[in-house]
């Protein structure tokens, strides 16, 4: 009877432990970046910052090391939703890989704080200068847009997540700088939410309207406001067409940022499948990927053009509201800066330069009372020619954003200081008034 009982018992399966990868010595530097998106040194730096969260005290003899967790997390984010393959590669089970992924994502969002909107005068000046060099529009601190990230159909309120393209997704609004660095992200809304609604309920809008640090470039899916500069729906004059081209050139950085982000972390792109997690976890994954994207920029890691994907940024339904007369006037003044018949001046500072390139608040009145001035005009053939003149500076002061947009049309817009080295330094936020009119 006892023998029958022993024979009928369920025999417990013996646990087997695979060889785990916790080192990258078997890969070249190029292979490390291709598989994990970070360099060898950057991965070690990341593991050091996340070690306290990824290595909790445990008595288990076969616990997963913090380095293995970092490698698993990076591999899943970079290659898409292939948990079983990543688990086999790193010597853990699929269930453990899923748990490790969420531990890694939470650790990144808690410890990597590199998504920051420019706050100081120096940061804002650098942001405005960067966009001015790119699109010749002054007072721009960022470009904003929304992107759709495909997810599995949620159990509750699934219809709210069906986007305009017909699949389940989350709608993430992101703002980036001129160098494609994410500076603000709102990741919490379902795919059916309109971009303008996401903006209206964001803390970014409140900050832009209360602090007035500058303006953001946006597409026609957003309303025209004192903090959002949108394209013209039906450009008529050449100046309006040039403005739309410049506005699109400046706004293109956010679409490029999405393309690089989704190419670097394929879990966010349709080629990597869909995120098979809840909307809350999917939003956390997007935030972690954006932080890692900024980290790649910090370490100088670029992505090959062949790896950059189409982010799928088709045009959102145009905002149907009517902007106020004040904001329309502000945009009109910006448009008028693209009128080629408008006078533009260039100042050439004589002698050795008394200021450093980093000193954006340099006051020329302290050094020069008279500058060589060249007037930019168009001849009858439409070619630009320069007429040298000499003028005396009367005053110089830093402009507020609204002052900049309210400069009279007869006043020149672009000011350049030519350094002795031949480099050009531009100061678009500064207004110079001349004693003798031209």
Draw up the topology in text.
Blueprint lengths: L1 H7 L20 H8 L3 H15 L11 H14 L3 H8 L3 H18 L9 H15 L4 E11 L18 E8 L5 E9 L4 H6 L2 H9 L3 E3 L10 E2 L8 H27 L14 H20 L26 H12 L7 E5 L21 E9 L5 E15 L2 H5 L10 E3 L5 E3 L3 E5 L4
Parallel strand pairs: 1-4, 4-5
Antiparallel strand pairs: 1-2, 2-3, 6-7, 7-8, 8-11, 9-10
Key terms:
alpha+beta, 3 domains, four-stranded antiparallel beta sheet
Walkthrough of the structure:
Belongs to the HARBI1 family. Transposase-derived protein that may have nuclease activity. Does not have transposase activity. The chain has 3 domains: 18-111; 121-336, no CATH class; 344-434, no CATH class. Helices cover 37% and strands 17% of the residues. The protein has helices at 2-8, 29-36, 40-54, 66-79, 83-90, 94-111, 121-135, 195-200, 203-211, 238-264, 279-298, 325-336, 401-405; strands at residues 140-150, 169-176, 182-190, 215-217, 228-229, 344-348, 370-378, 384-398, 416-418, 424-426, 430-434. The strands form 3 sheets. A 5-stranded mixed beta sheet has the order 3-2-1-4-5. A 4-stranded antiparallel beta sheet has the order 6-7-8-11, with no helix packed on it. Strands 9-10 form a two-stranded antiparallel sheet. It is elongated, with a radius of gyration of 27 Å. The model is unreliable at 341-378 and 384-438 (pLDDT under 50).
Strand order of the largest sheet: 3-2-1-4-5
Rg, alpha carbons: 27 Å
Number of domains: 3
Number of helices: 13
Silhouette: elongated
Order of helices and strands: HHHHHHHEEEHHEEHHHEEEHEEE
